[in-house]
Amino acid sequence: MSSAEITVGGRDITYKTGMVAAAAVVLAALSLLFIDWSLRAETLPVRQVSFEGEFRNVSRWELEKAVLAHAHSNFLVLDLGLIKADVEALPWVRRASVRREWPSGVHIVFSEQRFVARWGEAAWLNAYGELVHVGELQPSEGLPSLSGPEDSHRYVLQQYAGFVAILETAGLRISALVQTARRTWEIRLDNGVLVILGKEQPDYRLERFARVYRSALGRHREAIKRVDLRYSNGFAVQWANTTRPGPASFPKTGDDRAKG
User: Within 121-168, where are the H helices?
Assistant: First the structure.
């Protein structure tokens, strides 16, 4: 067996380097065995899963199902990224964060989708303007219906908010808004009236309509079928009992006059 000698304080000390090497090998082996043991699923299993968030549309059962698919893993090597992805894949979940809680817990904080409008036939828009598909699940009734060209959902939602603010001054509400392929606008009010807007100055034309509606046209609201705002100095009104636009019977003043 090889050996080495060093001098400490005038004394020669001999170390058996072979024994030192053997001890190092044993220690390394024991370390590997410990690591292997500690990373086994049965050594440090996940024993508790907790959630934090509003349970308005998301059910605890759905969340638990998404997490339990990974709960068989060892607590130390649990893939938090995969759990986050599976939780956020649930239709009503918008965002989620996942963390370990020592010694054997997992805590998930989630936020639910808050839908503000339907988009087309099969999608919804949340408060952040994001397009969401929820499958067979249906958000609450009463939300407006929006539609438009491909990838126009954020712009249409932005315009919707502006149109709502304008029409609220006249006590009117939007039930549907469409941007056509020609980039014109069609507004369906909740009283059934169809309002047509052109591409040019839609806000200005709608404001003009709201002013006239407040001052005079509103008294005839039950007789109105369609309003066309695509005129430079006025608009045309189609009455429910006629087949073509007819004149509006209210005072004509400046830009607020209506054309029949």
Answer: 153-168
Same fold, 48-112 and 116-256: no
Q: What is the mean pLDDT of residues 197-219?
A: 92
Which residues are within 8 A (CB) of 45 and not within 5 positions of it... i.e. 6 or more apart? 71, 72, 74, 75, 104
pLDDT above 60 (res 242): no
Residue 191 has pLDDT above 70, yes or no: yes
Among residues 253, 260, 252, 214, the alpha carbon closest in space to that of 235 is found at: 260
Single-letter amino acid code for the residue at 55: F
Phi and psi for 207 in degrees, rounded to 5?
-65, -40
The domain made up of 116-256 is a member of CATH 3.40.50.11690: yes
β-strands 236-239, 224-228 pairing: antiparallel
Give the distance, in angstroms, between the CA of residue 134 and the centroid of all CA atoms in the same chain.
11
Type of residue at 124: W
Domain 48-112 CATH (choose: 3.90.480.10, 3.40.1190.10, 3.90.79.10, 3.10.20.310): 3.10.20.310
Residue 129, exposed/middle/buried by CB under 10 A (0-12, 13-18, 19+)?
Answer: middle
Closest CA to 95 of 128, 122, 144: 128
Its pTM stands at 0.69
